[in-house]
Fold this protein.
Amino acid sequence: MLRPVNQDKQNEEGNSLSNWLNQIQRDSWQLELIISGVVIFLLLAVYEPLEAIGREYMLQQLAHSHLVDSIVMIALSFLMIALVLVTLGFIIHLIIRGFWIGAIGLRSVSGDFDYEALRYTERYEGWLRRRMGSFDTFIEKLEVRSSIAFSLAFLLFFALVSTALYSVFAIGVTAILVSLSILVEDITVLKYVTRVLIIAFAFVLNLSSFIYMVDFFTLGALKRSRRLGKIYFPIYRVMGFITMASLYRPFYYNLIDHPFGRRLARMLFPLLLVSILVTGITFGRSVYLPANDATIHNVKSNSYLTTEDPDDIARLSPSLATYYPETDYLEVFFPTIGHEVNRTLKEQYPDLRTASKRSIGFADLLDTYDEEVPVDTLLHAHRMIHHVYLNDSLLADAPWKFYRHPIRKQPGLVYALPIYDLPRGEHCLRFERLQYVKRDSLSWEDQGTLCFVR
């Protein structure tokens, strides 16, 4: 019986594709070594620039509360974690692949195991034969583990990218709903409808993501159940779309259909959990040192500009120019945290004219500023919600000014504190800010204590 010509042609194409893939598979170790080396070099080179970008967006977020800055911050955080995991994965792959190359070189010199030449007793020889088998089998195991480690590094990277996409989606939709609730705050019915939508959205999304994560780490346990599988299928499709699962699913399913890959995937979650716990363990802690350094008995090094790297300054806290001032004036800086100050001023001064028409911006594209707003009125309002006490005495007439700090790269209030008439010794500044607690409720919150020596 003759087969159709098209079928023969398809078989030939399939065989040629299989032969081509088999050839690449045999030579893939060379590509793996090159890619691992290049990727490790690039990842190490790009880490510091990404850190700098993350710090810049963090400062933008603290000052202006832009939605784009929040989304970029989340994405960068996951990307930094992904870079660390991928770098470790490729380093592990290089170690295993280097071990494999060493084993190949040793085999070319000494060949397979020669148990008879060792002249061990039957007990030891039998145990070694059962445990180790042949040297070729050992080399094959190294080959499998090396290739799986290489693929696992990419799987972890794309899985974290998918997690970042999920976080961006969740934050974006929540921000839109919150913005709508702010716009309709004066309409009682719509206000409660938007609140219900926010709660319902958060509940459904968190529950779906938890179920999706359970299925991922159990290697598809929900997909094996007929009843649960029918319920889970819509969640699987929607979460796959949100996280762009097509990036990692080919790696994931090809990994878990291999016996060793399946064992490794089962251990993945416990290994990640153990690694987090281990990195959090500290040794040699002094049990007689206080945990909180925001008191007059401690010097907060990250709140003095002359004793700390600018990148490590406590961004949410006030700062002094130095702990040992040598001039007659000491710079005191009080940062303004956008979302906190906005809510407080709106509640305390409902008729206060705003300098910007929007509290939530999209980068700088939609920001519109009122050039005619009375700056003196705004400055007075800011002074009223920021208090500083020098040695427990309120500096009521402190002439605060708006200031964008060149070192901290943050907007805030600055005050040149005169210290020429202070007695010699240590003096302390205590900072307070009037903050919005709940609707129609404001309270003075402690923002820390900083000392200096005259």
Summary: The CA atoms of residues 61 and 69 lie 6 Å apart. Strands lie at 319-320, 329-335, 386-390, 393-394, 401-404, 411-418, 426-438, 441-453. Residues 135-183 form the longest helix (49 residues).
